[in-house]
Design a protein that fits this description.
With 243 residues, the chain is an all-alpha fold. It folds into two domains: 2-52, no CATH class; 86-242, Ferritin, core subunit, four-helix bundle (Ferritin). Helix content is 67%, strand content 0%. It is built from eight helices and no strands. It is elongated. The two termini are 35 Å apart. It binds fe (ii) ion (2 copies). The site of one fe (ii) ion has 7 residues, from helix 5, helix 7 and helix 8. This is Ferritin-like metal-binding protein YciE. Residues 56-70 have a biased composition (Polar residues). It comes from Aquamicrobium ahrensii. Residues 52-77 are annotated as: Disordered.
Length: 243
């Protein structure tokens, strides 16, 4: 049973937290199957039994900082009822990518430090400078749209960056590490590409072709970076990692 439990560790950690907070847990959310020998026990006993078997994550994973001084308190705003129109949604998503760009700006120096392939290192350095420009362009769009420039927490980019940090921390081989860094960077680029693509479409729908044109510049740089990463991976880094 043990191998199948690896993927459940996060669920148990969340469960432990909820249990500690004394919240009621509905039956349909239980993480125990009928086949589980502990399933006939009360929930606290189940936790105890599973802990004894080493099947409950005892520590939550270290998290990268996710709070920014210019973010709102609620994570995404999806449940705040603040988003009443496409314009509101546009502003919310602009704040999401603003937060994401700032998190990426914070994460890139560590990726530069870890990269061993000179071309990859230089590529990350270049993209750090581009990312600073992306932040400025998003601020420009806030201003053009006459709304305050601020971020909203984005668990999606936090998760991508956290995973990148976790995986790279597990690798000693330099070439394999470079391959992992490229894969993580491409996950980041694809997130940015989807956000900018959506924002551009909505800006045009809202009659703001001027905002769309500014965002398009960011999108093109994200796409170019993604393409370069693919070329690097296919031409050298993956080949070296496989040796
Ligand atoms: Fe960016
Ligand atoms: Fe990017």
């Amino acid at each position: 049973m043990v191998p199948a439990l690896a993927g459940r560790a996060g669920c148990f950690t969340a469960f432990e937290k909820r249990w500690a907070e004394g919240q009621k847990r509905p039956n349909h959310g239980r993480h125990f199957t009928d086949a589980d020998p502990a399933s006939h026990l009360s929930l606290p006993r189940q936790m105890l039994e599973l802990s004894k078997q080493g099947r409950v994550a005892s520590q939550s994973r270290a998290r990268i900082p996710t709070q920014s001084s210019n973010t709102e308190d609620h994570p995404m705003g999806f449940f705040s009822k603040d988003i009443k129109s496409l314009d509101d949604l546009f502003v919310h998503t602009l704040r999401d990518i603003y937060y994401a760009e700032k998190q990426i700006e914070k994460a890139l120096p560590a990726m530069i430090e870890k990269a061993t392939n000179p071309a990859l290192k230089a590529g990350f350095e270049k993209h750090l400078q581009e990312t600073k420009g992306h932040i400025e362009r998003v601020e420009q769009v806030f201003e053009m749209h006459d709304v305050k420039a601020k971020g909203v927490n984005c668990p999606a980019i936090d998760g991508i960056l956290e995973e990148a940090d976790d995986v790279s921390g597990e690798i000693d081989d330099k070439q394999v590490l470079d391959a992992a860094l490229i894969a993580s960077a491409q996950a980041v680029e694809h997130y940015e590409i989807t956000r900018y693509g959506t924002l551009i479409a909505w800006a045009n729908e809202l009659g703001r072709a001027d905002c769309a044109a500014v965002l398009e510049q960011n999108l093109q740089e994200e796409k170019a970076t993604d393409k370069k990463l693919t070329e690097m991976a296919e031409s050298r880094v993956n080949l070296q990692a496989a040796e």
